[in-house]
Amino acid sequence: MADIPSVPPYPPELMRDVAKRRTFGIISHPDAGKTTLTEKLLLFGGAIQLAGTVKARKSARHATSDWMEVEKQRGISVTSSVMQFEYQGHTINLLDTPGHQDFSEDTYRVLTAVDAAVMVIDAAKGVEAQTIKLLEVCRLRNTPIITFVNKMDREVRETFDLLQEIEEVLKIDCAPITWPIGMGKTFRGVYHLLEDRVLRFTAGEEKRSEGELIKGIANAQLDELFPLEVGKLREDVDLIQGASTPFSLGDFLAGKQTPVFFGSGINNFGVQEILQALIDWAPPPQPRVAGTSGADTRLVQPSEAPFTGFVFKIQANMDPKHRDRIAFFRICSGRYTSGMKVKHVRAGRDMKLANALTFMANERVLMEDGVAGDIIGIHNHGQLHIGDTLTEGENLGFKGIPYFSPELFSAARLRDPLKSKQLQKGLQELGEEGAIQVFEQEGGNMLLGAVGQLQFEVVAQRLKDEYKVDAIFESADIHTARWLTFPDELTRRNFEREQSMRIGKDVDGNPVYLASSRYNLEVTMEKWPKVGFHATREHG
Ligand code: GDP
Hints:
Its main location: cytoplasm. By secondary structure, this protein is of the alpha+beta class.
């Protein structure tokens, strides 16, 4: 369950503050309406004054988020950001994920830092490819999912069909909470199945509005207002109440069932219900598994007093004139206070945390107070890597922040061979940042691995702008990479001797097998049954 355990006794103020946090991300296929929904959620939360801010950022490529030339040229959001706002006494952290599929690796990591997700489905299109992939990632941690079926103001698919498709393709039970009345030009509103009321749809709402409520499905007012649609509504509701599984908070929290809402983001319709569901049903910050200094793991509870957390994303400074970077850090327990001293576990060093940032829409402000579930931005010059844990107490290492085996490879070659130091430095830093994966082969060759082609272009551009290095990327004859683990030193040495040409090291020095083909990988795995070949690696 989502409750915060009360034993052993945790600091009561901390428990109270943690219980008010909700940290979530929005997953969707590009164009389903994620940006629009984000904007409306912020509007409800009072984080932005006018509709259009997020949109403007997306289209006009605003300075704060679009520091990167590539991003400007392409008109896509390469980096993800964090937005914090207040709603009904709760502090909500919305972690934005890049929608472009080339950056799915980044998106995956952002999803390790949330406690819930809102899935946006385009009602005309149904379940699309990117949604399937993202939901799989959520499933790795059984993240609870709230579903928003968007664009009901358009000619869309039949509601029962849509739900069936979600259940079949995404393998998650649907519990409709609202039910649409009509669609497109005859979209009249939604019936709330749990509250037995109809919320009337009016197009083009600028700001929040309670809308007009009609109580009771048998209400004669409905017959007057929607004579053509009310019959179908009553039939549908009879059917659902007989056939579909009722909402179960336990199943939702276990990631087995998703409450489904219908609406139209652009018309600000159905958005408030999503916020309400986040507050009423989505879990507060959850305990996290961490490795301890022994071989054991334990659950770190969000209300434990010592401050802990992990880095899930690193972003180059939004101001390209400065080389420092911002590590996005999810607090898992304790409280952030400016000037506190923490231990950087991987490096075995102490560091002072001051001037951490929090993110209000597209503004960055200094963080004053943060607890589990909050995201802080920490300035650093490359000391912090993705997956790093910072703690105030015992040595811990949070688990579950993955690197995925890249699908595309290329070798970096310099136009000017005298710049090899800069190239190495640039690639090392961009690799640590997670912009791309970098493997160093014997003889100092730098090999790049990416999930999407666009990552190479971003890296080439950044090498030029930030490191003054003009590099050419040539395709490399590599099919896939596998992280290696060895049962003992002797096996390692023998393997490394035989396979030296096919071994590389990632930015953290871990050995990787670079297979030339699927067949090559299979043969090598067969020959070395005791060596572990892993398609993902956890950071840290
Ligand atoms: P994203 O790519 O998922 O972030 O999608 P956007 O929020 O940018 O929306 C994609 C397109 O769908 C835009 O042209 C939006 O104006 C439009 N859109 C978003 N929500 C709705 C909606 O509720 N109804 C209609 N008709 N269009 C919408």
